[in-house]
Design a protein that fits this description.
The protein is an all-alpha fold and 341 residues long. Helix content is 80%, strand content 3%. It contains 11 helices and 4 strands. GO terms for molecular function: ATP binding.
Length: 341
């Protein structure tokens, strides 16, 4: 009966690994049959190691290597990520076993009774698996993040706090056991306080980092908004300039045609000079082949022009190019006058 119970706990452990990996990793393109076969082979090996009397470290190493193989065969996972996932699971398993051993020792159970087949061993395995399931359920939401806000440099002092806390807890337990007393209320409060402080440290560091990320993202969004507003403002100004340019060009061309019909050369010259002076006030426009970049550069170029700051860019293209000079204009006027006569 104990053997069947022990095998059932192994099946539960394999299911726990399946639940853990399914929540953290994404399945690859392999069929479900291959996935089930991989888990069955892993479970058979784990059962064999539990039947044969081996050291617990051997089963832990086998579990760690088995999770690595499962990550490679059944899931999409980078090698370093697979190592991280396997290490965390094995660490959770070891923590739960140690905590359960300490708990049963406080309750007065002997270590040899817990490690030998029997009622005590069954209770120990049950408590350990339940605690491990609880830790996995808590750890999965914390690990299931594409980009963790806490980097390795930030985690090192937190991990050091955890290690020292475990050491302090172990020392308190040793003192209570050597004194021949049960765990006192004061010692229990100290243990809970140490755990509470470590949890608060991690949560506080996570919250602070999250606030920094939010502030940085808000600044980036504000900069993007300002650039977009400047782009649309400069685009609107360019449209107004283009509309005014075509209006002036149409007006002066109409005036030139009307004056050229009358044959008044001086009037044509005056209209031409007025048109040249009006169109030269439009200035220049920046054209780099990209309307968004050109509009942004044009916006800052206009600011530099308003502040009378000299600006010389290789992307400047003169908006007004007079492809005819005054002599050509005179000849055209004379030809028009001759035709009219």
């Amino acid at each position: 009966m104990y053997f069947i119970y022990h095998l059932s706990t192994i099946v539960f452990g394999v299911f726990l690994i399946f639940f853990y990996l399914q929540k953290l990793l994404s399945r690859n393109s392999r069929s479900s049959a291959i996935v089930w076969v991989a888990y069955i082979i892993f479970g058979i090996g784990l059962m064999a190691l539990n039947v044969v009397p081996v050291m617990p470290i051997v089963r832990t190493i086998y579990t760690w290597l088995g999770i690595l193989v499962l990550c490679k065969v059944c899931y999409r996972s980078a090698p370093l990520n697979a190592v991280y996932v396997a290490t965390v699971f094995c660490a959770l398993a070891l923590i739960t076993e140690l905590l359960c051993l300490k708990l049963l020792a406080i309750m007065g159970w002997e270590y040899l009774d817990v490690m030998s087949p029997g009622y005590e061993r069954a209770i120990y395995i049950l408590i350990a698996k339940v605690c491990q399931l609880a830790l996995v359920i808590i750890a999965v939401p914390l690990m299931h993040r594409e980009h963790s806000l806490l980097k390795l440099k930030s985690l090192l002092p937190l991990l050091a706090c955890q290690i020292f806390s475990v050491y302090f807890c172990d020392e308190i337990l040793r003192l209570t056991q050597n004194g021949g007393r049960k765990l006192s209320v004061e010692s229990t409060i100290i243990l809970i306080g140490i755990l509470y402080l470590n949890i608060i440290i991690i949560v506080y560091a996570e919250v602070v980092k999250a606030r920094q990320e939010e502030r940085h993202n808000a600044d980036l969004r504000q900069q993007q908004l300002e650039l977009q507003l400047s782009y649309y403002d400069s685009l609107w100004k360019e449209q107004e300039q283009t509309r005014a340019m075509w209006h002036d060009m149409s007006k002066y061309l109409t005036a030139i045609k009307a004056v050229s019909v009358s044959g008044d050369k001086s009037s044509v010259e005056q209209v031409f000079l007025d048109a040249q002076d009006s169109l030269s006030k439009i200035g220049s426009v920046v054209d780099v082949g990209n309307p968004e970049v050109g509009a942004i550069l044009q916006h800052y170029a206009q600011q530099a022009n308003d502040l009378t700051v000299p600006l010389d860019l290789s992307v400047w293209v003169q908006l007004v190019k007079m492809f005819y000079d005054k002599e050509k204009m005179d000849k055209n006027i004379e030809k028009t006058t001759i035709k009219i006569q």
